[in-house]
Amino acid sequence: MLSRAPLFGGKNRITFSLPASEPAGAVSVVGDFNAWEPGRHELVPRRNGRRSVSVVLPPGEHRFRYLATDGVWLDDESADQVDPSGSWVRVHARTPAQG
């Protein structure tokens, strides 16, 4: 699941989240914004029963996927688009006052 929060300078904080127990093991969000590097943005368990990580992204289209233990790849059905190459999130230039 994705959530967005506008920041100054046109950037947005995108929070990537999954249920805490599925899939089992460590999960990272990897994408063009982190050179597809596993472990750089690992989801962390939260008290609300989910695990999540937030990433600040500039305006534009960003491709990503979740990478779980044992090389399991997952897409995010709440993404702006999902295609055979993965999930996409579109970040629009907004400021906090614009919502």
How would you describe what is shown here?
There is one protein chain. This protein is globular. The model has no long low-confidence stretch (mean pLDDT 91). It is mainly β and 99 residues long. The chain has one domain: Immunoglobulins (Immunoglobulin-like), CATH 2.60.40. Strands 3, 6, 7, 8 and 9 form a 5-stranded antiparallel β-sheet that branches. It has a 4-stranded antiparallel β-sheet with strand order 1-2-5-4, with no helix packed on it. It has strands spanning 2-6, 12-19, 27-31, 44-45, 50-57, 60-68, 72-74, 81-83, 86-91.
Write the layout of secondary structure elements.
Layout: E1 2-6, E2 12-19, E3 27-31, E4 44-45, E5 50-57, E6 60-68, E7 72-74, E8 81-83, E9 86-91
Antiparallel strand pairs: 1-2, 2-5, 3-6, 4-5, 6-7, 6-9, 8-9
- First and last CA, distance: 19 Å
CATH class: Mainly Beta
Low-confidence stretches: none
Beta-strand content: over 45%
**Helix share bin:** under 10%
Rg value: 13 Å
- Provide the succession of SSEs: EEEEEEEEE
Task: From the 3D structure, determine the CATH topology.
Answer: Immunoglobulin-like
| Count of discrete alpha- or pi-helical segments spanning 4 or more residues | 0
Let me know the CATH homologous superfamily.
Answer: Immunoglobulins
* Main sheet makeup: 5 strands, antiparallel
Q: How many structural domains does the protein architecture include?
A: 1
CATH architectural designation: Sandwich
Structural class by sheet pairing and helices: mainly beta
Question: How would you describe the shape?
Answer: globular
Number of strands: 9
Roughly what is the average pLDDT, rounded to an integer? 91
